[in-house]
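ARCHIVE CARD
CATEGORY: sequence design from structure
SOURCE FIELD: tokenized fold
FIELD CONTENT:
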């Protein structure tokens, strides 16, 4: 089960890192490099997640998905969004068929 409190605390920490000096933390340095660098990290972590899944190493899958979520939260924060925005969208989609949801975005 997703613990929204963990995600909210992490989102708050990430937001605080935006104003920290780049040399003070990994996250601050990533923000300083800009959106392209953040997107590159998300893509890298997504690829590593795929490779872990192809290898079938369950522990490695968890590590890589954690990295992917972490960098995705940094990307959200870059645009003033947070885990709450994603959780809200998940709640909205709950109980809706994937086909119906996807078709609703076309109109």
């Amino acid at each position: 089960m997703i613990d929204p409190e963990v995600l909210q605390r992490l989102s708050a920490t990430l937001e605080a890192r935006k104003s920290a000096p780049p040399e003070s933390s990994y996250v601050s340095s990533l923000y300083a490099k800009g959106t392209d660098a953040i997107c590159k990290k998300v893509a890298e972590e997504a690829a590593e997640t795929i490779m872990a899944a192809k290898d079938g190493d369950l522990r490695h899958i968890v590590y890589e998905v954690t990295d992917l979520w972490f960098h995705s939260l940094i990307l959200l924060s870059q645009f003033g969004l947070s885990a709450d925005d994603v959780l809200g969208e998940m709640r909205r989609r709950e109980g809706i068929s994937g086909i119906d949801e996807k078709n609703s975005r076309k109109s």
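CARD ANNOTATION: The chain has a mean pLDDT of 92. The chain is about 75% helix and 0% strand.
SHELF: design records, drawer C
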